[in-house]
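thread: overnight batch results

M.L. [08:02]
morning all. the overnight job finished for the chain we discussed friday. pasting input first so we're all looking at the same thing
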Amino acid sequence: MADYRIIVDLSQRKLHLLNGNTVVKSYPVGIGRILTQTPLGEYTIVNREKDPGGPYGAYWLGLSRPHYGIHGTNNPASVGKRVSHGCIRMYNQDVMDLQSRVTLGTRVTIRQ
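M.L. [08:03]
and the structure it wrote out:
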């Protein structure tokens, strides 16, 4: 059974999916603006929703920090940039791949 965890590296603007200590996949992400930075820390995935509507793209993975999550986007040009209000944006196909691999309770580390 896979022991997945997520590391979001803000300086690289990458989300790394790990199984144990091995990187399985890395995805480009959009992160928070200077004034609405993505919060550093240790979190878990606490909820998930397909097609959440609005700007959240194909999928929402909510973090244990209220109002923050990992989600798709209806603006793919924003991935790789500092554009969000603190959430982690992914291409829709990438967030769909990620959500198929992780479960509620998956650990998420956000680091500089």
